[in-house]
């Protein structure tokens, strides 16, 4: 599998191609994502491409474009819809108000681990609860990371009051609401911009799973960590509909065979394993780690988090969305997937 960075103008012009003299493959798929190329999640996503190539006996070629080299993190979904990329992995919450039902899994208490959360999200999609949000793309699989925590530079956060006046990067509006309710000042930034923002002092901290603290080198800057299980993000890997439709039926089957729960749980499990790497790195660097007893259910944290959760679900319901139904189903699946 070719894992290269190319000029966007050349890539965009290349399009979905049928084999010629240069490439023996019948189908070339450009796979865009925002993770650094050497990160564990990027390597796990690369195995999807390697598997597809192997099972097609080389008739499908997958080229990975990491680190936003083909599309910005906030634009990857639309880039897949428009055909700039053939496949893309995104954080749903990076596109505000576009995937509100999918983002229900971000709420506290639903996700305990990446593998369990990925099971919840994929089942919600497989059961048809989220169909309306993905009409313009061909969904391959969904996943979540494990619990997201609070990581700060210089100031420990042991209780919500300690967040007062702190500028904390939030990945999505939902997480921003949680932080604001707790007294922090949320700042919206895509993951690749976090390091420079903390380095400059634009932000005092970030909300991230342990995996990302290592992948995005934030352990180099943040030396205080609050393990609270505040949230978990939803991710989806989609394929351009026209790209999929043009493939021969036997190659479509290769894609279909690498769609759904198996890959959802594979990515979730990878996050869980990489979380151990991130926390171990922080320990070896001598950082301070505050573990909140019972996490988001701790009495000092729970009332605010419950209130924000209720506001999010009721707000979507007021827009005519079946948020209550999806939230209740997510809670049931949370237990079933963790069994």
Automatic annotation (TrEMBL):
Q: Name one Pfam family in it.
A: DctP
Give the keywords, sorted: Signal
Leader peptide range in chain numbering: 1-24
Identify the Gene3D superfamilies for this entry.
Bacterial extracellular solute-binding protein, family 7 (3.40.190.170)
Tell me what this protein is called: TRAP-type C4-dicarboxylate transport system substrate-binding protein
